[in-house]
Each structure stands twice: as C-alpha cells, then as structure tokens.
Amino acid sequence: TWKWVVGPMFLYLCERLVRFWRSQQKVVITKVVIHPFKTIELQMMKKGFKMEVGQYIFVKCPAVSKLEWHPFTLTSAPEEDYFSIHVRIVGDWTEGLFNACGCDKQEFQEAWKMPKIAVDGPFGTASEDVFSYEIVMLVGAGIGVTPFASVLKSVWYKYCHDATNLKLKKIYFYWLCRDTHAFEWFADLLQSLEAQMQERNNAEFLSYNIYLTGWDESQATHFAVHHEEEKDVITGLKQKTLYGRPNWENEFKTIAGQHPGSRIGVFLCGPEGLADTLNKQSISNSEADPRGVHFIFNKENF
C-alpha cells in the first residue's frame, strides 16, 4: 500500500511547494477602480505573469486574513500589460478588501498605501478553447459573465491590431441577470466592442442578448414605454434588454439553421441547472451525420 501512497503524496507536495513559491512573488496593485453597486476592479502586475482568456487566480490579502484564499476569474485580456479581477462586495472578506484598498475613503489613495496581495495562478478553464471554433455561443449567468469579459476584450484587441489570423468568425453572447445592478461595469465593454465592429463594417460579428430575469410590473411598463428608443435605457446599447428567460430550444435551432455543417462551441459559466439544460440542447440539436452541425458543450459551474 505504501508504494501506491508515496508517489501521489510526493507529487502533491511538489505541487504545493510550487504554489507556495508562486504565492510569495511580489504583486503590485497599479489601479483600483470603484464601479457602481460596490463592485471594485483591481488591476495588478506581477513579474513573469502570463495568462490566457477565461483563466482564474487565487487571491490572498494578509491584511484581511492570513490564511484565506479566494478564486477570482481574470477579466483582463492577454494583450494588456496588467491583469485584473472584479470583486463584488458581498461578505466579510470582500468587505475587508474593500476597506483595505481605501475604497471607503473619499481622498485619493497613494500606491504605497495599497495592501499586500498574494496571487497564485493562473489556472486554466474551458473558456480557453473559445478561439478554436469559428462559431461560439457564450452564456454567462450573473457574475458568471467575468470569463467572457476577458474573451471579448481579447477579441477587441485583436480587431484593433490584426484580425486576419482570427479563426473566430461569429459570437452569440447571452447574459442572464436578476437585476440591473450587474450591467453597470460590463456595458462599457460591450459598447466599445459594438462601436469597433461597426467601424470595421463587421457589425454581424457579435450578436448579444441580455436577459433581465428578476423583473416586476414597473420595470416591464418602463421597458414598454422606451422600447422604440434607439438605445436601451438600461445598458445604453443598441440591442434592447429582454425580460424573462431565453427559449433555448429556439435559440439552438436558429443558430443550427444559420450555420449548417459547422462545429459550434457552447461555453457556459453559470449554475448546474442551466448547464444541464444547455448540455441536453447541445446533444439534441447535433446531427448524427459527421458533416452536419455539431454543438460542443463546455462548462464552468459556480
């Protein structure tokens, strides 16, 4: 028995030593951005840090807790000279980080006053394979949109420089949110990407649908009154916000009809229930013929 135990234990210890060494490397917080509804963005730099789209890191702030590590999806793109995370203030640890970064103070905070941060990672996820497909469906539920922020930023940078080698030709993006608060920090990115695609006469590249799932009568009435305006009153985007939940069967059938004979990557960051639904739709809408349309499902659950 000891022969079978010693090998895995040795590998585990080696892995822990590597992670400990990486966590001791110096991390510099270069910028803290306060977004509406107590969401903060930490922009950081670390020597030798390399990332891919959709990856995540573990973060520790000794000023808040000397032992706690928390996972956060990277919201920056590999093309940027920093890496960033978005933290929504929803508990004791995130509240402590919010205060440690001086976000509760009105005056400007000097860089040397920023707390020490330890970072372990990055670690890979299914979202890294986005650029392996010509057609993709990106589905984010609530804060599950964060890995796709990295993807869309990377697409924006590629189009700003040279998109001739980009295999990805079409993105169908779905974002499901319970309330309007979650739109605030992400709408700017979509607006930039929307404008970039229009300038390059490629407005069809990104098709996005934003669903507000936790709505009431007053919101529905407001929506009906302003529906004819050029831009959405909630997000400022040309695509109008939709109410309720998507009819996934119709969405899959529509996309399959528009791209016959294609391999379509379906990427989800959301709850297990939604993953089951999308997995079943991916299977039922894929054709038995190898030359037909096929949906390849990839997921990250939280």
TrEMBL record:
Q: Which SUPFAM superfamilies match?
A: Ferredoxin reductase-like, C-terminal NADP-linked domain, Riboflavin synthase domain-like
Tell me the cofactors it needs. Answer: FAD
Q: How does it sit in the membrane?
A: Multi-pass membrane protein
Q: Name one GO biological process term.
A: monoatomic ion transmembrane transport
Localization in the cell = Cell membrane
Any Gene Ontology CC annotation:
monoatomic ion channel complex
Q: Does the keyword Coiled coil apply?
A: no
* Coarse class of the protein's main subcellular location: membrane
The record's InterPro entries line, in alphabetical order, gives: Cyt_b245_heavy_chain (IPR000778), FAD-bd_8 (IPR013112), FAD-bd_FR_type (IPR017927), Fe_red_NAD-bd_6 (IPR013121), FNR_nucleotide-bd (IPR039261), RBOH/FRE (IPR050369), Riboflavin_synthase-like_b-brl (IPR017938)
UniProt superkingdom:
Eukaryota
Question: Which part of the chain is the FAD-binding FR-type domain?
Answer: 19-129
Q: Name one Pfam family in it.
A: NAD_binding_6
What reaction gets catalysed by this protein?
A: NADPH + 2 O2 = 2 superoxide + NADP(+) + H(+)
Give one GO term, molecular function aspect. Answer: superoxide-generating NAD(P)H oxidase activity
Per the entry, what this protein does is: Catalytic subunit of the phagocyte NADPH oxidase complex that mediates the transfer of electrons from cytosolic NADPH to O2 to produce the superoxide anion (O2(-)). In the activated complex, electrons are first transferred from NADPH to flavin adenine dinucleotide (FAD) and subsequently transferred via two heme molecules to molecular oxygen, producing superoxide through an outer-sphere reaction.
Q: Which PANTHER family match?
A: CYTOCHROME B-245 HEAVY CHAIN, NADPH OXIDASE
State what protein this is by name: NADPH oxidase 2
